[in-house]
Design a protein that fits this description.
The complex is a heterodimer of chains A (116) and B (111). Chain A is mostly beta strands. Chain A is built from no helices and 11 strands. Chain B is an all-beta fold and 111 residues long. Chain B contains no helices and 11 strands. Classes of the chains: A mainly beta (116), B mainly beta (111).
Chain lengths: 116, 111
Amino acid sequence: SQTIHQWPATLVQPVGSPLSLECTVEGTSNPNLYWYRQAAGRGLQLLFYSVGIGQISSEVPQNLSASRPQDRQFILSSKKLLLSDSGFYLCAWSGSRLALISYEQYFGPGTRLTVT
Amino acid sequence: QKEVEQNSGPLSVPEGAIASLNCTYSDRGSQSFFWYRQYSGKSPELIMFIYSNGDKEDGRFTAQLNKASQYVSLLIRDSQPSDSATYLCAAPNTGFQKLVFGTGTRLLVSP
């Protein structure tokens, strides 16, 4: 079966500090990978998605970046955090792009980031 | 731009009642829909998906899709306090690489 891991689970960082969040998926190959942010009491905001190694699509302009160095690894980074970067960061995966019918996404446990 | 809309709630129902959660969508070409449940402080969990017009049942959950009216609903029978959560509706975008999520409906089931 497939599992998705995220770490760390919680993080408190000062404004201006760097960020690196990691997500890994097990039990599948060639997944589509996604980073979302959810501000307190708000909906899901898609930040980045990737359909393959080195292929990153950005959904919103911001001071965050994403990388996919391996097939099942997705990293979210920032060089300098802003207060507005606080939130619940979720990684998700979906089936290969060769799967024609099922595009449901499965979420990791999330990282709660507080920027102080 | 495809849109998926939900009433934010909260929807309050007594224990044992049927909770009805609704979602409307703008793209007539949408073929599949997904319902996620998100407990406070947790990540969303897929609970149902539906591709065809009509009803799909899974235990206490029934998803209903009406393509002509462009709405999809989730019925929860015999609601329990443990069903209290935010329910998110989602549909794939035109390229099928992303899901467009509604903002979610908060459900409160009182004992």
